[in-house]
Predict the 3D structure of the following.
Amino acid sequence: MLFIKIHELKALQEGALKAKLGELELELAIERRKIASTGVSSKVVKTRELRRTIARINTILRERGATS
């Protein structure tokens, strides 16, 4: 699910983007819980890329005028 290119995201419809956004936010929450429970993150890159992809999707939705 990581490393989604911007042109791939722009090709998706609004509904698909919102669904992917929800999926990524859930995955990020799971990763954050793992970090909180163990105190150590072995997947810093995964967490960072999840946050960036969520930001990309939010940017595309705002450009299109869709509100959350």
User: Anything to note?
Assistant: The chain has one domain: 6-62. The helical segments are 6-10, 14-38, 44-64. The chain has three helices and no strands. Residues 6-62 form one domain.
